Amino acid sequence: MSTSAAEQDGQRDAAAAGVQSVDRALTILEVLARNGEAGVTEVAAELGVHKSTAFRLVATLEAHRLVEQTEDRGKYRLGVGVLRLAGATAARLDVVQEARPVCRQLAAATGETVNITVLSDSSALYLDQVAGTSALQPHNWVGQHIPLHATSNGKVLLSGLDPDALDRLLPKLPSYTPQTITRKAELRAELEQVRDQGYAVAVDELEVGLTAMAAPIRNAGGDVVASISVSGPTFRIEQRTEEIVRLLKEAALEVSLRLGWGHRQVTTPQ
Amino acid sequence: MSTSAAEQDGQRDAAAAGVQSVDRALTILEVLARNGEAGVTEVAAELGVHKSTAFRLVATLEAHRLVEQTEDRGKYRLGVGVLRLAGATAARLDVVQEARPVCRQLAAATGETVNITVLSDSSALYLDQVAGTSALQPHNWVGQHIPLHATSNGKVLLSGLDPDALDRLLPKLPSYTPQTITRKAELRAELEQVRDQGYAVAVDELEVGLTAMAAPIRNAGGDVVASISVSGPTFRIEQRTEEIVRLLKEAALEVSLRLGWGHRQVTTPQ
DNA sequence: GCGGTCGTTGCGTATGCCGCAACCGATTGC
DNA sequence: GCAATCGGTTGCGGCATACGCAACGACCGC
């Protein structure tokens, strides 16, 4: 808490973080995640600490392979250690564990990219991705937070919540393309339809030319705990919607069954 | 330094880590990645520090969402923050970029041409090539689409797919030389062998006089995302297969590690 | 070549972390 | 039902340790 006269950015929630040096080190990771690359001086300025302090912290992170420097004398960026940790994290989540073989098969059957998402912090957190056979990885979404109202996964996740949670999670509905749903009433109607038909569609709503379809994954209690989606270029998807929806719903059901859904009386009120 | 009477595992490289508390915190992440879950007491024992120290560190990690505690009785495990960081890392991950220095070294060590390929549209797409030291140079394959069943790279890429994808991708197996595999059953057996031994060989199967060997490159999820190969005139390769295979597998492993392939035993409770 | 910037390193100091011990809630044994 | 145990959590004081300072070498651009 020294130099309480930190004039630059007062909005940093510096307090309430137990160990100062660790907190600073982890903040460095977040800075690197945000900026992609950063030098020691830049990091030091962002933390409001001395250059040498930032360097020691970065060096410690580097010793654990969490960051790496681009060249001998260069900037720093996130390292492979992060990916190892992420692999262990994903392996721990039983949703991912159970869903992975199903995702593989779904990706093979449709030829498109398959994703698993969960609700996290008012957005859709992408947990896993299996690339389709068509081509190179279009985009790796894993770890990204994506708006709920502009994606098929998001709609599915929202459809599992009680209606008033909608206002709490999504006070506003920003627009990304002309197709993005921006009116609450329209979104509510859409979610109602998702609940009815058991899947969601998003055509050009997040990105023009990108279409995705998603279905809910339920746990033993019947709650929607995750969402599984198939996505690809609109022109490839739109001609095969029925087939993909069928495969998608089968896959979602399969994962739900593995998680224990349907094995006991479901007590969801109508 | 606390009393390093931690008798269990002496191999901890305690020294040479700049900031002590940060080093300990990051070690906690690694412990959690390895064990899946751990309590404060367990973590403290593993680090050789006091319970309270471990708790502060874990609490700081928790404030950054890198760990989270299970609701019931307060064990800790890796959190979603790790996935966010991984998303930022994966965004810049490029197979070619990560593989290039390794390819260079492999080309120098073997003196032969090294290639990187991925699966694309039912064939092997050559992404990168590093020429060997020999004067006798093959042509540049980069950008070419090459049949999957007649190349070592193709076999490796196929070996990462589920069996029924084979029929979809390769309805027919055209012949290029007398050595080309043209029967599905034979190809299946060959792929099985590739999976077992971790590399593939193709001798005179695409072009008479051309031999290639390839090994799989895997991403964090364990999928085969690319293939790396060493190729050259049959007469030069055939006498050094064991050496080349060893170097090749080392190189493939190195690239896989850079892409996050660090697979760990997960001791999830049954 | 010269000023500016960046990553890196030795050093002294007081800052912030660590170990101690006690607390609390839950679970177990008798 | 009570005591004993175990595991996570918290106040406190001493002292190790992480920090800021300043200087260095390397690089870049004017």
From TrEMBL, chains A, B:
SMART domains membership? HTH_ICLR
A single Gene Ontology biological process assigned to it is: negative regulation of DNA-templated transcription
User: Ranges for the HTH iclR-type domain?
Assistant: 19-80
Q: Where is the IclR-ED domain?
A: 81-261
GO MF annotation terms: DNA binding; DNA-binding transcription factor activity
Superkingdom of source: Bacteria
Q: Kindly list any coiled-coil regions of this protein.
A: none
Q: Which UniProt keywords apply?
A: DNA-binding, Glycerol metabolism, Transcription, Transcription regulation
Q: Does the keyword Lipid biosynthesis apply?
A: no
What is the role of this chain? May be an activator protein for the gylABX operon.
Q: What is this protein called?
A: Glycerol operon regulatory protein
From which organism does this entry originate? Nocardioides guangzhouensis
